[in-house]
Write a structure and sequence with these properties.
The protein is mainly alpha-helical. Helix content is 61%, strand content 0%. The radius of gyration is 24 Å and the shape is elongated.
Amino acid sequence: MTVLDLPPGSGVPRSSARDPVMDERSRGRIGYGLVVCGLALLPWLVVLATGVLVDSARESLTWVGLDSLEAVGLVTTGLLVLRSDPRRALGASATAALLLADAWFDTTTATSGTDLISALAMAVGVELPLAVLCVVLTVRALPAAPARARTKIAPRRPCPQGAEAPPCG
């Protein structure tokens, strides 16, 4: 059993043919779509690693690191969606945070002109929609909250008086 395996008897199916959250067609589209998006980042990582678009090696390493984490998150989340694994919420929430951070840093560090326009286009057209999808996957994968049990609260007893009485709290 690895760290990511569910404990036996946890009541959460590892993988099931019937996912209560989404049907098989949606699951396939979303899962394969996320995997393809993650793999599509690989050529972009090569461009970033060569340093053509950035000013320094340190800046190149920063962007390669962030985009690599996004690619891993997208592929992992896609594979967990395909397996109907409830742990997809973990990958989806982390990936959403990375995509939001990338959109923020792309737009705020872009210089004016075409650099800013392309950063805004990537944010609005790719990063933010993927982040929203990941947030939706996270919320829908969370287990439903159990109905609150109605318990009868026992009336409080008065505190005993006197020097020999135990402290009352």
